[in-house]
Amino acid sequence: MNNSLKIALIIVITILSGCSKKKESSPSYNKGDLTILTDESFQSVTEALADGYMINYPETKLKVETKKEDLGFLDLLNGKARIVVMSKELSPDEIKEYEKQVELKFLPAKFAADAVIFVVPNTSSKESVSMDEIEKGLQSEEKEFIFDGTNSSNLNFVAQKLHKQPKDLKFSVIPGSKNLIEELNKYPNKIGVIGLNTFSRPYDKASIELRNKVKILKVESKGQLYAPDYSGMREMKYPFTRILYFLANEGNFNIANGFIRFSCTQLGQMIVQKEGLQPYNIYKREVQMR
């Protein structure tokens, strides 16, 4: 074999090898690993959706990692995470920073209606709490409300609803929603603040046990009482209804965007409903026959 033929053969092999590597590394939604960051408040629904995705795409491996909402968002901006679950409305400055760092248009993928709920021990005679009580209580030195942590999605959302900064509110903390529920009976005059998804699964044994320990308070607003049930969340009448959404920093159709699409399809939305939350993209339809 002369030198010219050897050189030509080497070039062809190099090109074919490069094409093969390029093909192997091309984006794929149905295989590969992905870590999803979520606040503890949305952990249950996020894990249920991740399990559903892995059943449909067995070559994927999704890991759900809990992280406070603000910290998860920062990890996304810094490229330490590919996808996060969010609930709070981002400020114009935060949206601008997201678009600058990620180099993508801010397009939140909304997938569920959840709620921040106010709970008391199941032995309490209290049935409801007013918006006025909530606002005054969070300014009181008595620290009448107990949250599951600082920088938590629940604290962020309540502060945003009251047009306050979390640092301007006065409250107590018992870290972790489940710990808060377990220990709330030690503080009979306090009100716990948690996410509905903490125990929203209707037939889950652990969820039932947690629900039985507390009483969910209705919220009074403008003379009306509202509950965090399907109707209250679907019509956004319950004052502390919040919309859960995904944010990703993936510009192609890789596993993160594949997971987002799955979560927003009918199958994903059925999983949301089984979690006891209100699906964002499908609603119960009633047809009257005449």
TrEMBL record:
Matches recorded under Pfam families: PBP_like_2
Signal peptide (residue range): none
UniProt-listed PANTHER family: PERIPLASMIC PHOSPHATE BINDING COMPONENT OF PHOSPHATE ABC TRANSPORTER (PTHR30570), PHOSPHATE-BINDING PROTEIN PSTS (PTHR30570:SF1)
Source organism of the structure: Chryseobacterium geocarposphaerae
Protein name (database record): Phosphate transport system substrate-binding protein
InterPro entries: PBP_domain, Phosphate_ABC_transporter
Keyword list, A-Z: Signal
Listed Gene3D superfamilies: Periplasmic binding protein-like II
Ranges for domain PBP: 30-263
